[in-house]
Amino acid sequence: MERRDFLRGLALLAACPLCVKTAYAAEGVHWSYEGEAGPEHWGSLSKDNSACAAGSQQSPLDIRDAIKADIPDIAIDWKSGGTILNNGHTIQVKAAPGGTLRRGDKTYDLVQYHFHAPSEHLVEGKSFPMEVHFVHKHAETGALGVFGVFLVPGAANKTFASLAAAFPQKGGEEASLDGADPSGLLPSALSYWAYEGSLTTPPCSEIVDWMVAMNPIEVDPADIKKFTALYSMNARPALVANRRYILSSS
Fold it and tell me: Phi first, then psi: what are they for 198, rounded to 5°?
């Protein structure tokens, strides 16, 4: 645990592009989701990415054999608005200030949220059409807490529809958002799985407390297509758990 706490202390230095950097041109060495710069090669693209290949607590995971445990409830208080960016790897929303996620005695500040297609996490081998990651950091320790929610086709979702209508079409484009409420992307119940893992993009730093919602949300299939028209595949494949426990809220 001491090693992990040390790494978390360096989180803000290593967590880009997932957490801090929002500038399209500031993401360092080129990487992608296929070919010679794809996930299987991330670790060799830069010495800063060594954890992508050598890490033992990498994410995402195939969630299976979860252990029911008395883990803290999650309380969320996010704010509407922010700015929306096409960063060349995904659509990312820089959150409006003041949004929080509280889990037990820890309170994290919402920094940004972004989307993957298909889902990065699996459940008993099953993937979902999309997954949204809400990225938080602890103001004092720099610890990261990421809350993932699966998206499936169904009834229209007001928040996702408003975001889909505003998706910047080219890498590097950014626009302001008025009124988009990220809480609209939450399921009605916040039961979740929890495990210790990593960023799912380079540099793959192992500094993330993962929380993945058990219940997906429905969004309009046409809005899913608006995302996949830009990013048809931007998901890192699921990796081995390496004796990690996945805990399940009761």
Answer: -135, 175
Q: Which of 89, 114, 133, 136 is catalytic?
A: 89
- Would the pTM count as exceeding 0.85? yes
Angle between helices 221-228 and 158-166 (to 10 degrees): 30
pLDDT band at 27 (very low <50, low <70, confident <90, very high): low
C-alpha 95/C-alpha 78 separation (Å) is 8
Answer yes or no: 138 catalytic: no
Phi, psi of 84 (to 5 degrees): -115, 135
Q: Delineate the domains of the chain, giving CATH numbers in brackets.
A: 2-249 (3.10.200.10)
Burial group, residue 36, by CB count within 10 angstroms (0-12, 13-18, 19+)? exposed
Residue given tokens 């990220």 in the structure block? 182
Q: Which helix (H) or strand (E) holds 174?
A: strand 174-177
Give CA–CA dist 165/186, Å, rounded: 19
Confidence class for position 166, pLDDT limits 50, 70, 90: very high
User: How far is residue 203's CA from residue 52's CA, in Å, rounded to a whole number?
Assistant: 7
